[in-house]
Amino acid sequence: MPALRPEQWQEISPYLDHGLSLSKQERAAWLSDLRAQRSEIADLVEELLEEHEVVSQAHFLEHQLPSLDEDYLTGETVGPYKLISRIGEGGMGNVWLAERADGRFERRVAIKFVHFAITSRGAAERFKREGKILGQLRHPHIAELIDAGLTPKGEPYLVLEYIPGQQIDEYCDTQKLGVEARIELFLDVLRAVAHAHAHLVVHRDIKPSNVLVSSDREVKLLDFGIAKLLADDTSPAAATLLTLEGGGAMTPLFAAPEQVTGGPITTATDIYALGTLLFVLLAGQHPTGPGPHSPADLVKSITEIEPARLSHVVKGDASSADNRGTSPERLSRLLAGDVETIVAKALKKSPQERYVSVTGFAEDLRHYLKQEPIAARPDSVSYRAAKFVRRNRVVLGLACFALLAVIAGIAGTLIQARTVRQQRDFAIRELTRAEEINDLNQFLLTDAAPSNTPITIHRLLDLENELVQREDYASDPANHIALLISIGGQYLDKDENEKSLQVLQQAYDLSRGLGDASVRARASCALAWAVQRQGGHARAQALVEEGLRELPRDRQYALDRVYCSVHASEVAADAGLAQNAIEYARLAEQSLNQWPYEPGSLRLAVLSALGEAYNFAGLHRQAILTFEKAFEQASRLGYAETKTGASLLESWGFALSLAGRTYDAEKILRRAVDLTEGDQAGGGATPQLLVQYGTILMGLKRLPEAAVFAERGSFRAQQLHDQVTFEQSLFGRARIYREQGNLERATEMLETVEPMLRRDLPPGHYAFATIRLDRALIASERGDQKSALELINQAITMAQNAIRSGGQGAFMFPAIYVMRAKIELRAGDATAAQGDAEEAIKEASASLQPGDTSAGLGNAYYFLAKALDARGKRGEALAAMRK
């Protein structure tokens, strides 16, 4: 038959799968029915089925590689693993239980093989992608990738964490879990998928058999065999070789409408599958109704027919109700309202109508569990009142019996009235200030510029500053100061440091004449950050401490404490006081948790500050997790594609680079660069981002690109008078030029930056140790190993002193010991090199958790292998090189 077009394959694949599952007699009747409905589809399917029959009778591929399905493979070895028994089979291949057989340690694993009959180029690509994706996803609820390789016969395999457990729907039924318990378990699935989405991975095959639950109630998400990196989608709607050949790899019952129709695959695709899974967990049946379904009926149900409401599906279903420990009537009542509204939103036919993110889906479920209003339901006074009653049912019940107590308590109520009035007045003042800021911004955006006249953001800020100096704004000092603080902060965001300092100093001076603790504290803390940006560390620290002292411990000042604590953390981090930065960020988090409502933007600021503090302290694993949560929060607030989102990606990428995850860091930072370079109106990428991306490219040995980005970052930092980033850019350029062999240019960069650092930083700062380290490496490249060793020994002493004085520097030691080992090898001292490499391994391992990978640790093992080899210890050297 002639070759089929991709869209034809997409259309007939479900029909072909169904036809292959039928007996000859059933198939003939089915084809007859299909022909009456869609004759052209029936003809194609019949022709393919006949070809399949011919191939089967000819024993096609019978003499190729033996099938891994055969039981005689029990006991065979694959790498260091011995196969025990086959435990599963799917479209991509089959899965075997295996155990470690080389005696190094005991562990049972699951080994997944590609099926011999589909070892086409597309299947091989899918397999490679699965390994790549699983290797970069590290999460408690995602099955771990342990190893990968090829059998002696060239068959590829993955070694995966073995999960002894039941699929999630069977587990829930066996345990007779109720509705809330099932939702709690499902939230773990959402956490896993949110983690994957944050790494730009869409699963595309979420179904009960891919979610296992262990006996201790641990959830694990399996099988990223048809997952696809979003970053690779140059044309989201276009079918690639992978998707065309893998068209049948998805599970039709859990496919989203866009998967069936060949539309673009996005994170919304997973949200639909998750909605289907939750429907099954709660109702005991599929949204399309009880099966079996013909392919045509299934496609129609998925793409056209709205699923029945959960509460209607379970009516009269005694079996499902029993599995949930209740009666059909009560189960129907439990699922009516918010639960079915949440599920219905996830199952919308249009991806745009579903939840924007998995975190939004999870947030609504958590609100439901807490009897709080959900985002998927239109807001109303009666709805919120009903939620209040449910949350406070006991309290309201007791109130019916407390009428006499209320009368008796009138005197106490009068005493408390003053406190209530104070809180009311405080709320009104805050609302008034917010309204004034909003009104001013609205005026500037709609009325200030002449019609059709372009106006820059910097001009808008200048105009805003001019307006608030007028008498009508100055008549209310507290509101006037709040407006100045807002303008000063916006100047800082635009790197207008001098203007920011001027405006915030004015706000601070005006606030000293007021008795309003909130205004005084915010003015002091806002000024602190502007002063810090100008290098005034001591004064900045004094200002944030002053601001925090201003605030009473009352809960109404909780958000002010958050504001000041975040600034205090930033000031401490910028001054190199890592532990202080963490403590202030945690204080901000504690203060935020005291507030009765969740202010999303402040939560984002707190997470960002905490992530930065962890980074400065060398706690990179915590930093990565925190920035991941921060980016999820930003996405929930709609900031993912904004400057805020780009800034978070930049910090997240920096944390990944410090943790030694260089390839992951490059992907995240590339996203940030692409996002900001397209925004020329906003100034393009920040100099910090350009310099950091250049450093990552250097680590990947992409030196010409690295030099371009580092030089662009340096030039932009000079344009913006960003002294700190300019100094960092000189460091980065020195290293890139050294790697390129341009030692004169590298030395010139260090000689330029060192006097700047002596002017701007305290004498014991770790940056001076970095200068010594870079000079040592340049000396080594010139062949002067004696001077190189002297300089690097000085660098180690200086870094140790920086740590003892409470500053940063611990993160340097793995790299600095590796570099000394490199110099010692060049000097012919393999014994000393071995000692330093072992010390580097110890230092690098200290900040890693089991299963973490790190380029720094890999580099340390590499130089240990070189040292052992130089000492003639070939076996130990080979073992170190393998590590």
Question: Would you mind describing this structure in some detail?
Answer:
About 13% of the residues have low confidence. This protein has 883 residues and is mainly alpha-helical. The protein starts with 5 loop residues before the first helix and ends with a helix. The longest helix is centred in the middle third of the chain and has 39 residues. Strands 1-2-3-4-6-5 form a six-stranded antiparallel sheet, with helices on one face. Helix 40 runs antiparallel to helix 41. It contains 41 helices and eleven strands.
Key attributes of the depicted protein:
883 residues, three-stranded antiparallel beta sheet, single chain
Q: Could you write a compact summary of the structure shown?
A:
The chain is mainly α and 883 residues long.
Q: What percent of residues adopt helix (DSSP H or I)? A: 55-70%
* Amino-to-carboxy terminus distance: 52 Å
Overall mean pLDDT stands at 76
Widest sheet, order of strands:
1-2-3-4-6-5
Helix count, per DSSP? 41
Detail the poorly predicted runs: 58-69, 225-249, 378-458
